[in-house]
Amino acid sequence: MLRSSAFLLAWLVSSGALAYDADPMLASLRPAERARAVSQAGLGAPNALPLYDMTIDVADDLRSFTMEEEAWVHNDSSAPWGSVVFRVFVNTTRADAVRLESLSCEAVRCDHEQPDASAIVVSPAAPVPPGGWLRVRMRLRGTLQVVEAERLTLMGQGLESLGALSGGHGGGDYGLLAHGDGVSSFAAFAPVLARRRGGRWEQSDASTMGDLGTDALAHYRARIRVPDGTRVVATGVEDAPRVVGARTEVQVRLAMARDFAFVASPRLERRDAQVGEVTVRSWFLRGHEASGGQALEAATHALRVFERRFGPYPFTELDVVEAPLVGGAGGVEFSSMVTIATMFYRPAGTGGALGALMGGGEQLEARRQAMLEFVTAHEVAHQWWHGVVGSDSRRHPFQDETLAQWSALLYVRERHGAAREQAEREQQVAAGYHMMRMMGRPDGAVDRPVSAFADPLSYGGLVYGKGPLVYPAMRRQVGNRAFFRAIREYADAHRFRIAPPRALFDRFARGRHASAARALERRWLDESHGDADLGEPSLPGLGGDAGELLRGLQGADEGQLRRMLEGLMGGGGGGQAPDLRGLMDMLGGGSP
Fold first, then answer.
1. How far apart, in whole angstroms, are the C-alpha atoms of residue 450 and residue 456?
2. Segments in 359-440 forming alpha helices (H)
3. 368-382 b/e with 16+ CB inside 10 Å = b?
4. Do the Cβ atoms of 295 and 372 come closer than 8 Å?
5. Tell me: the pLDDT tens digits for 325-347?
6. Phi, psi of 55 (to 5 degrees)
C-alpha cells in the first residue's frame, strides 16, 4: 500500500496530471496572438508556463489585504528540482510588507522556510523531475505603505530626489505596494518563481535600485474583492464585476505576462480610445480630467508609432493609471498596464524663485505636461522592451531601459517633429547625464549589473541619460532602413523570449557597417566618452545659476535641502510648484 501510494504520488508530480487549462487566460491576447504566441515563446503547450491563481481580499480602508495563492510550477529544466524558491519582491525594500501565514503542496508533502523576507523555499518530499509539476498553496497577509499627501506633489518628490542626490537613499521603494490620495497600488506583492541561474535559485538581490521582479513569463488568474463602489484596474482582462454581499469581486485573467499588478480606488475616472483591436483606457483622479486626457492621447499615439515600428502589441487592452508613485519614479510598467505618478497630473504652480529661474508659470506648466507625455510614452514602450521582448533586468538593465527611453524620443519625433525631439533629448534624457556629472559622479560603462552602480544618480545618469543616445548615433551610422530593419527583426526574433543583452547590436553590426557599428557599441555602452559625446555638463534652459545650485546641494542635510527648495519655491507654493526633479527634467525620464 505504501509503495502504491508513493508510486501514485510520483506519477502525479511527474506527469501532466496536475496541469491546468490555460485557455481562459489567453483571452487577454488579441485573437491573432493567441494562435502564435505559444510557438513564438518556444512552448510545447499553452500550459507549460507557471500559473499563479489568486484570491485577494482588500480591506475596507484599502490599506491591507489577505490572499490565497495557488502556484502551478512546471520544471522546464533538464535536472530535478529538490527545492523550489518563490520571491515576494516588495519585501526586498520593506521586509514586513507581505507575510506568509501557511503553505502546503498538492499530492506531495513539503516543507518550507524563509531564509530572507523576500524568499520562500519549498522542499517537496520527492524532487520535481524534468517536465514535472508542483502545485503549491499559500496564505498571505499584507499591508500597504501609507504615502502622505505631501509626498505625492512635485515638491514632495523634489525633496526625496534631493535626498538621493545627497547620498541619502538607495532606491527601490517606488510605492509599488502603497496607498495614497485614496488610491491603492498593488505590485510585486504576490509570490512568483525566483530567477534561476546556473542551476541555482536566486534568493536575494544585491541592490534595490531598478526593477525588482521576475523577467520570466507566466499566466495569472485573480479574484479581487474590494469594498462596494471601488474600481479595480488590473493587468489583463477583467470580467464584469459581481456583488458578493457588501463587496465587489472582479475576476482577472492574464496570459504570457512578466508581472501582475492592480490599482484600486473609489475615486478613479476613465476615458477610452480605440487603436485597432486595442482598447486604451486612461484612469485618473477626479479633478485631473485634463491630465488624464493628455495621458490618453500620448498613450494612443505612442501605441500607433510603436506598432508600426516594432510590431503588434499583443494584448486586447492597455491601461494607463494615475498612481501614488514615490521614490523618484515617474512611471512603472506592467504587462498591459502602466502607472504614472500623481505628481504629473497636478497643474504646476507659478511662485518662488524657481518659477523665475524656469521662465515663469506658463513655462513650468508646459514642462509638467511635456514630462507627463514623455513618461507615458516611455512606459508604453516598455510593453515591447521587457514586456514582449524579455531581458535580464538585473544584470543588463540598459537593454530595456535605454530602448524605452529612446523609443519615447522616437514617439516625440514622429508626433511633434525633429525640433521638439531635440528639445526633449536635452531636457528629458541628456540632462540626467549632465546632472550626474555636475554632482561629481564619474562617467562609465552603461552595460553593467544594477548592483555595479554606486547610487541612483549614477544609475539614472548612465542608463537613462547617456545610454539611450547610442541609438541616434547608430541610426546615423547604418542608415534609417538598416536601423529600423534591425530593430524589427530583433523584436520578432525574441518575441515572448529573453533576448541576449547585445542581440540588437549584433543585428546593427552586419555588412559594410559591422566594424563601425561595433566601435559605436563599445564607445557608448562600455567606455567613457559621455562628456565628448553629450557636451559639457549643463542643465538646458536654466542658465548658469543651475550649476551653482547643484554644487550647493552637495553635503547638505535634509533640513538644509528643505529650506533651499522652499526658498526656490517661494515658501513651498502650496505643494503645487515644481520640484528640483522638474528643474532637472526627471533625471533621464524618471522611470524605474
1. 10
2. 361-381, 398-416, 418-424, 431-438
3. bbbbbbbbbbbbbbb
4. yes
5. 988 789 999 999 999 999 999 88
6. -120, 120
> Which CATH superfamily groups domain 46-378?
tricorn interacting facor f3 domain (2.60.40.1730)
Structure confidence at residue 522 (pLDDT): 99
Which CA distances in Å does 138 have to 118, 185, 376, 404? 14, 21, 35, 35
| Three-class SS of 300-312 | HHHHHHHHHHHCC
In sequence order, the 6+-apart residues with CB closer than 8 A to the CB of 128 are 13, 73, 75, 80, 81, 84, 134
One-letter amino acid identity for 198? G
Query: What is the C-alpha separation between 539 and 583, in angstroms, rounded?
Result: 9
When pLDDT is cut at 50, 70 and 90, the band that residue 1 belongs to is very low
List beta partners, residue 334: 337
Question: Which residue, 370, 374, 403, 377, is CA-closest to 302?
Answer: 377
The stretch 407-418 carries a mean pLDDT of: 98
- 3-state secondary structure string across 109-167: CEEEEEEECCEEEEEECCCECCCCEEEEEEEEEEECEECCHHHHCHHHHHHHHHHHHCC
3 state DSSP class of 349: coil
Read off the DSSP letter of residue 455.
Answer: S
First CA to last CA distance, the chain: 56
Contact 213, 393 (CB under 8 A): yes
Residue with cell 559605436: 520
> Which pTM was predicted?
0.89
Residue 82, number of CB atoms within 10 A of its CB = 10
pLDDT tens-digit profile of 104-137? 999 899 999 999 999 999 999 999 999 999 999 9
Categorise residue 327: left if φ over 0, alpha if ψ from -120 to 50, beta otherwise.
left
Three-class DSSP category at 298: helix
**pLDDT tens digit string along 520-538?**
999 999 999 999 999 987 6
Span 255-290, pLDDT tens digits: 999 999 999 999 999 999 999 999 999 999 999 999
Kindly report, as residue ranges, where domains of CATH 2.60.40.1730 are found in the chain: 46-378
Largest CA distance in the chain: 85
